[in-house]
Amino acid sequence: QTVGGLLKPLIFGGLDGVLTSFAIVAGAAGGSLEPSVVLVLGFSSIIADALSMGVGEFLSSKAENEWILSEREREAWEMDNYPEGEIDEMIDIYVKKGLERKDAEVVIKTMAKYKDFFVDVMMSQELELHVPSEDHVRESMKEGLIMFCSFAAFGSFPLMGYVIIPSLFPHLGPNILYFSACIVTAIVLFCMGCVKSSFSNAKWYLSGLETLLLGGACATVAYTVGQLVKQGGLKS
Q: Which of 39, 62, 158, 225 is buried most, with the most CB atoms less than 10 Å from its CB?
């Protein structure tokens, strides 16, 4: 469970990558584009979007951590200047959680003797914020790198059929390539949903099916748009 904190960029990056890539494949198939065009659009989009997602994850994570640390500084200032008020607020919180007031006073006043510890408790109980570690910038960079790698790696799966199959079976048409991309994407989506269930109480097959259905809905929309654009272009 220690890797659970990295689950968000891993799953989100992977899902976004495979869905973005397959949406391009589905839209191109709906518009009857050549396989070479699909590869150019697909891989260029994957690299560009992976970089964008990785940088975005790093900046958003870093900004969130910096905001939390600024809130911690504010709580520490309030503890230095208005300790009685902060202690009373924490006592009220613990009373609402079910402690008797006398017990809450003993607990809070004992913790208040240790300022840094008590400020972190206030951040958790009062503001419901988790204080990041001192090397939070490195952690944000790690999240951004995982987002980039996950997006690029999973995003390449729907396109692999367009690379491998023509080299092995050059006589097969575009419909077979699209069908292979559908199969590969379905397997990847289902497996990602199963992996996601390892970090929750959801049943693995239900989580896999949920991810597969949502991904299929996105692909259906992309294919339909491609068909509509193609028909509109033919009419014009």
A: 158
- Output the pTM of the full model: 0.77
Cα distance between residue 57 and residue 11, in whole Å: 13
Taking CA 203 as the corner, what is the angle to CA 201 and CA 207, rounded to the nearest 5 degrees? 100
Task: Give, in order, the Cα–Cα distances in Å from 195 to each of 12, 15, 149, 180, 187.
Answer: 12, 12, 17, 23, 12
What are the tens digits of pLDDT across the range 92-140? Answer: 999 999 999 999 999 999 999 999 999 999 999 988 898 888 888 998 9
Write out pLDDT tens, residues 59-88: 999 999 999 999 999 999 999 999 999 999
- Rounded (5°) CA angle 19-139-71: 105
